[in-house]
Every structure is written in C-alpha cells, then in structure tokens.
C-alpha cells in the first residue's frame, strides 16, 4: 500500500518521496516532508511548496483528500483504493506482503555449545532467527539458516569427562570431581546410556575422547529435538572441528596481509588496527589455536560462499567479539560491513510473580523444553518476539495461561477465531463477499480496514530495522481494534452485513499471515 502510494507520487515529481505516519490520525493515512527537501533546491518556503504539491497530488484517484499542513502534505486514501487493495489481498493471500528484495543472506543463529540441552537464553536467539528468516523469505530474500557447532574446544573434552565420572559413580567407584564439569540429570542419563551401549570398558579404559565425540552427537540430536518442538529446522550445520583443516590456509592469508605478529610465545591478531580495544591472541604458547581462531576460519568460509549479507545472532555476552571478528574479516580481504551482528539479551522468567525454578534435569539453568511444555511453543515464540532483541525480557508464564486480554497470544487468536465463527453463523464464505464494494463505511470501519491492510508495511519495517516486536505490537493493536469494533457494531442481519464480513475477513487475513511469519498458526476455533 505504501509503495503503491509512493510510486504514484514519484511518477508526478520524478523524485524519491518518503512517506511517514502523521502525528495524529485526523490528518490522514500518510504524510510526506518532501516540501522541506525541495525548499533548499527551489529556495522557496516549504509551506508554499506544500500548497502547490497538494493541488497536484489531489488529482490522483487513490486519494480522498490531500491537505498541506505546516510544510507537510497529508494524504487520506480513497474508499475505492482501499477496497481494490482489500479485494486483491483476499484473493492473493500467499502474495500479501511479499516483495522482491532479492538479497542472498546467510543467517547463523543458536549455535549453542553441544554440551547440554537448550536453555531459555538460547531459545530467544532461536525464535528471533526463525522469525527473521520467515519474514525475510516472505519479502523475497534467499536465506540460508546455519548452525555453527562448537565441537573443537575444551568444553567437548569436559563433556566426555563429566559423562565418564558419572559412569564411574554409577558403577560404585569413588570419584573426585574437578573444578570444571557439567552437572545435571542429563549427564547421568548420558552415562547410563553409554554404559548400556559400550559396556564397562569405557570406564576401565578411561575412554574419555570416545565419550566426548559420542556425547557431542547425542547432545546435537537433543538440540535438534528441542528446536523441532518450536518448529525450527536448519538448512546446514557446520563443524568447528572440521573447519580447523583450513587453519594453515587462513593463517597464511593473515600473515600475508600483515595481520599477525608474535609476542610472549603467542601469535596475536592486530585487531586494534580495525576498531578493537586491543590485539587478540589467536595461537597460545603451546600451539593450540584460541576460540577466536575458530571464529576466523568460520567467517572465512562464510565469505568464500559469496552471500550478499551475513547475519549472526549472538547472546549479549558476545558483544566484545564483534570488533575482533570484523577486524579479521578485513584482514582476510573481505568487506566487514557485510557482516551484521544482532545481540539477544537475557531472559528472566517468573511464575506467579516468583523466579522460575531451575531445571532439575539441567542442574543450573531453565530448560527451553520445560517452558515449552508448560506454556506451549506459540506463547514462547510470541513473548520472545514482543521486545527488541537487545533489551532485557521478563515475563510471567502464568500470564500466558490466562484466557483473557492480559494474554496477548490468546487475545489475538480469539480475534481470528471470532471472525471465523461470525462467518459460519452468517453462512457465508470468502467468495460470497470478496467482491462486495466497501463503500459508505463509517469512520471506525475505515480505520479498521486501513489498519488491517498495513501488515506489508509493518513486516517490511520489522525486517529492515531488525525490530520484530513491530509485528507483535501490530497484531495486538489490530486484535484490540477488531474486538472494539465488533462489540460496538452488529454484523449479522444488518444492511452492512456483507461489507462488514469482508472487512472482518481482511482483519483475519492480516492476523493469520502475521502470526504465520512469527512461526505461529492462527486458531480457527477456541
């Protein structure tokens, strides 16, 4: 809708035009500040220019009213234009809100260490990544979802050691636990399974490396299962361990580009040359590459694959890694501006106003699977998308069990189910009302129609500004507007019945498509 209006205006002016939302609804549907831009060029008052522009734009049939105001030009769309767009949208649901942006994007998210089940912190990044991918694809981008498996570091050895020591305890052996190890029921479960699968020889021969590899594979299967519970699947998985085969190649390129120097028996990356606060170690004194080395290799292989853009979703605690990774990309000869990092802040869960209990199975964190079991995948996704990713999120799971307006997921789904119920009571289908002209609607009905048709603008802004909460905010507001309208206006049996039914179907369409892009299927009955 916004793009159609922009195109019509640009055809007249032959200039790019920005459309904004007016400060007050009474001013119209859209506004443009183009007169202020032209004032510098024409050396005339913005108000004079706005007056002239308003007269020219008023000739377009898509507008009911065009008015200048303090240098702005305000537009109110015509009934014919809104009706035409509504009819098209109802007949073309799969294309509603689509576009042809055409970027090829590699989106990496979750990438949790395969040393335990996914916890609630991982879940936020997972949900954000999936929704970003869905919306981006809907807008015409080619998006590959990738999971980077950190399977080359000390944490994998610790996983194997933890399973081994737990297996020793199961066999009645005396165990002295080190300072660092993984704890929780899931480790005991792995130990019991390992003993059944491999026998006691894994303890007798202290086969920790074997347990590390096996345990990592078991955890990856569990992680895949956790993600499947919320409808998330990846296109590719990349192993850090396998990538290290390219370390000599990558190190040679870094040396060639003057990125590496030796000091105190270590190899350092000159990352401060490109914005980092200090240089970073990439190879320790004992010759072992650091965690950063793995990231450098991984991003080298990413950029070799020739995507237009690379997006990583990281936990907020990885903020310090951004500058050093971008510095490495620059030294490798690629454009670091093509890499975008989205940080996902921590999540605090309450239950009945009290902190949510840690999982007995995990030992020291809240499991994603347990929260999904309690409130459902849809509620989890909606709440995790309800605030900007870089802000702290806190919510009470008991709120998401209520069947009233305090529960946004229920309230939005109820709006969709309510419309479906009205259609059934009226004995009408889409084909019965889709071509009914939406003429002579009252102002409240017109406002609801305009709001329902705004979904394409909302999802486009949400994607390009990386603010997915714009979609959840929009759906909450649209549902509230629908409930308010329905409570005030009788639909069935009135002279406006078919018009109102068509209007309600447009609302249902936007709710259904909006939820689907968040990974949620709208309910038809409640």
Any idea what the CATH architecture of the largest domain is?
Answer: 3-Layer(aba) Sandwich
Mean pLDDT score: 95
Query: Quick one: CATH superfamily of the largest domain?
Result: HUPs
Supply Rg: 28 Å
Describe the structure.
The protein has 3 domains: 2-77, Arginyl tRNA synthetase N-terminal domain (Gyrase A, domain 2); 109-234 and 345-401, HUPs (Rossmann fold, 3-Layer(aba) Sandwich); 408-517, Isoleucyl-tRNA Synthetase, Domain 1. It contains 21 helices and 14 strands. It has helices at residues 2-13, 34-42, 46-57, 79-91, 120-138, 154-170, 185-198, 201-204, 208-228, 240-243, 247-256, 291-304, 321-331, 368-375, 377-384, 408-426, 430-433, 443-452, 455-464, 469-488, 497-517; strands spanning 30-32, 63-69, 72-77, 104-108, 142-149, 236-239, 260-263, 266-269, 280-283, 309-315, 339-344, 347-351, 354-355, 393-396. Strand 10 (309-315), helix 13 (321-331) and strand 11 form a beta-alpha-beta unit. Helix 6 (154-170) crosses helix 7. The longest helix is centred in the middle third of the chain and has 21 residues, at 208-228. It is globular, with a radius of gyration of 28 Å. 40% of the residues are buried.
């Amino acid at each position: 809708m916004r793009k159609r209006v922009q195109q019509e205006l640009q055809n007249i002016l032959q200039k790019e035009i920005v459309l904004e939302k007016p400060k007050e609804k009474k001013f119209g549907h859209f506004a443009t500040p183009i007169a202020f831009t032209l004032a510098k060029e024409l050396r005339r008052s913005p108000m004079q220019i706005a007056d002239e522009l308003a007269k020219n734009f008023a000739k377009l049939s898509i507008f009911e009213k065009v008015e200048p105001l303090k240098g702005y030009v305000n537009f109110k769309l015509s009934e014919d234009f809104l009706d035409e767009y509504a009819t098209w949208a109802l007949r073309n649901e799969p294309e509603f809100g689509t576009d042809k942006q055409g970027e090829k994007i590699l989106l990496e998210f979750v990438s949790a260490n395969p040393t335990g089940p996914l916890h609630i912190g991982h879940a936020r990044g997972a949900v954000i990544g999936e929704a970003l991918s869905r919306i981006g694809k809907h807008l015409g981008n080619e998006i590959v979802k990738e999971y980077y498996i950190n399977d080359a570091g000390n944490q994998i050895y610790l996983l194997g050691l933890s399973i081994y020591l737990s297996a020793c305890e199961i066999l009645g052996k005396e165990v002295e636990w080190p300072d660092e190890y993984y704890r929780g029921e899931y480790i005991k479960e792995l130990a019991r399974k390992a003993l059944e699968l491999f026998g006691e020889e894994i303890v007798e021969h202290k086969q920790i490396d074997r347990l590390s590899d096996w345990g990592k594979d078991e955890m990856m299967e569990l992680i895949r299962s956790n993600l499947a519970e919320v409808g998330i699947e990846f296109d590719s998985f990349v192993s850090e361990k396998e990538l290290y085969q390219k370390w000599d190649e990558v190190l040679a390129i870094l040396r060639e580009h003057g990125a590496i120097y030796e000091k105190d028996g270590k190899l350092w990356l000159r990352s401060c040359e490109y914005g980092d606060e200090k240089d970073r170690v990439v190879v320790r004194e004992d010759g072992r590459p650091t965690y950063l080395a793995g990231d450098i290799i991984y991003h080298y292989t990413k950029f070799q694959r020739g995507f237009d853009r690379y997006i990583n979703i990281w936990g907020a605690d990885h903020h310090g890694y951004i500058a050093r990774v971008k510095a490495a990309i620059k030294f490798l000869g690629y454009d670091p501006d093509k890499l975008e990092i989205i940080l996902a802040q921590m999540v605090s869960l309450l239950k009945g106003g009290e902190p949510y209990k840690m999982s007995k199975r995990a030992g020291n964190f809240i499991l994603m699977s347990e929260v999904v079991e309690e409130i459902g995948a849809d509620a989890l996704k909606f709440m995790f998308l309800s605030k900007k990713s870089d802000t702290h999120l806190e919510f009470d799971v008991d709120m998401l069990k209520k069947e009233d307006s305090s529960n946004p997921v229920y309230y939005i789904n109820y709006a969709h189910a309510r419309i479906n119920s009205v259609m059934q009571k009226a004995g009408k289908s889409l084909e019965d009302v889709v071509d009914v002209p939406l003429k002579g609607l009252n102002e409240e009905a017109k406002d609801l129609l305009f709001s329902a048709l705004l979904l394409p603008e909302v999802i486009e802004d949400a994607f390009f500004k990386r603010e997915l909460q714009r979609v959840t905010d929009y759906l909450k507001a649209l549902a509230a507007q629908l409930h308010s309208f329905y409570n005030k206006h009788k639909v069935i049996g009135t002279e406006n019945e078919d018009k109102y039914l068509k209007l309600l179907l447009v609302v249902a369409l936007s709710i259904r498509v909006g939820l689907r892009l968040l990974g949620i299927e709208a309910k038809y009955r409640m």
